[in-house]
Amino acid sequence: MSLLHSNLLNGLNFSGGPGVLPESVLQQVQDSILAVPEVGLSILGISHRSDWFATVVAELEDNVRQLLKLPKNYHVLFLQGGATQQFSMLPMALLAGKTHPAEYLHTGYWSGKALPEARREGPVRVVWSGESCGFGRLPADEELDFHADAPYIHYVSNETVEGLQFHRVLGRDDVPRICDMSSDFLSAPGDFERFSMIYAHAQKNIGPAGVTVVVVKEELLKDTPDNLPGFLDYRTQIETHSIYNTPPVFSIYVVLLVTRWLRDQIGGLAAMDAINTRKAETLYQALDESNGFYAGKAARADRSKMNVSFNLPTPALEAEFIASALAAGFSGLAGHRSIGGIRASLYNGLELSAVEKLADFMANFRSHHLPLVAGVGKGNH
Ligand SMILES: *Cc1c(COP(=O)(O)O)cnc(C)c1O
């Protein structure tokens, strides 16, 4: 029996990140540690300057282009430093020395992390902040007023910690739109050519940590400063086809396998979205049918299909829930350390059957604990 099959927790991994990966991909990865079939060498010991690795980067770039339906004037880059490095790298290129502020939305934990990094490079205007409402909802269009002279607009499509997701494209078409899609990248189709830049690290939806996909429109970089460090200059990365220095060969290879799985096994982003939608509906239904025992954090209209954050009536019950869930084989359900509670992450690699099992477990747990907390449930908001 392989290690993979003796480890039953893998199929029920609801971790917020690094997230679960499809089992068929993990099996190929397992083989590649000993030898990549078409090369005969371990993936951990293949040169990034080899012809084979150049074909890996080229195929991955092509797969991302096709999945996102990107036109030719976009570059697809595989960078290091995670999404956090993009928080700095993009304002270094696009905000330094500007007089008009870049426009940022502050909708949760991760968009909040981007703000101080941007402020270090140039002026920033917070167009809307959800801080006063405890990041329980996202803004409506009437609450947003974007200025035409901004160098760019920045927002996070899916707030991973709070479980809030925009189900529309924001901003205005005459100002470059930049989006951190780290936690919902390649989870659904969309109008991706309406963005001037999209970035997403791999470790939520599409692979292991170590690589960050950056999709950038050629026109966005036309007057970036000349004095940037080579590593942090998008143009150097473009010229060197993401092999400016030693890239994370392993991580890039796994992301390639995930894009092949998305295309061949799943059938593309529309099919992936259909599965993700059913998973999310299954879990939100478990919340909605619990009469307030499982209280969702996000306003209904802004519920994320990727991260379902909720609370139980007391912190003690939450601790008991996490412990019982772990004993039953479910892992990764503790909420983010910044806000606590429970979070179930339903990334691409998680199967519908895992969500159905979790919903059953939740119904059972509730019926066992309901007598203890009679009168506590307040109903969902
Ligand atoms: C997890 C996460 C990050 C942080 O990414 P790192 O790769 O750890 O720097 C940034 N943005 C979003 C939306 C995230 O979910």
Walk me through the structure.
Helix 2 (23-34) runs antiparallel to helix 7, helix 3 packs across helix 7 and helix 8 (269-288) packs parallel to helix 10 (352-369). The chain has ten helices and twelve strands. A hairpin with a 4-residue loop joins strand 5 and strand 6. The chain is of the alpha/beta class and 381 residues long. The protein has helices at residues 3-6, 23-34, 51-68, 82-94, 109-121, 234-239, 249-266, 269-288, 315-327, 352-369; strands at residues 74-79, 102-106, 124-129, 153-156, 158-159, 164-165, 177-180, 197-201, 212-217, 295-296, 307-311, 342-345. The model is unreliable at 1-7 and 377-381 (pLDDT under 50). The longest helix is centred in the last third of the chain and has 20 residues, at 269-288. The protein has two domains: 3-18 and 268-370, Aspartate Aminotransferase, domain 1 (Alpha-Beta Complex), CATH 3.90.1150; 24-266, Type I PLP-dependent aspartate aminotransferase-like (Major domain) (Aspartate Aminotransferase, domain 2, 3-Layer(aba) Sandwich). The strands form three sheets. The protein has a seven-stranded mixed β-sheet, with helices on both faces. A three-stranded antiparallel β-sheet has the order 10-11-12. Strands 5-6 form a two-stranded antiparallel ribbon.
Write the layout of secondary structure elements.
Layout: H1 3-6, H2 23-34, H3 51-68, E1 74-79, H4 82-94, E2 102-106, H5 109-121, E3 124-129, E4 153-156, E5 158-159, E6 164-165, E7 177-180, E8 197-201, E9 212-217, H6 234-239, H7 249-266, H8 269-288, E10 295-296, E11 307-311, H9 315-327, E12 342-345, H10 352-369
Parallel strand pairs: 2-3, 2-4, 4-7, 7-8
Antiparallel strand pairs: 1-9, 5-6, 8-9, 10-11, 11-12
Helix pairs in contact: 2-7, 3-7, 4-5, 8-10
This protein binds pyridoxal-5'-phosphate.
Pyridoxal-5'-phosphate (PLP) binds next to helix 4.
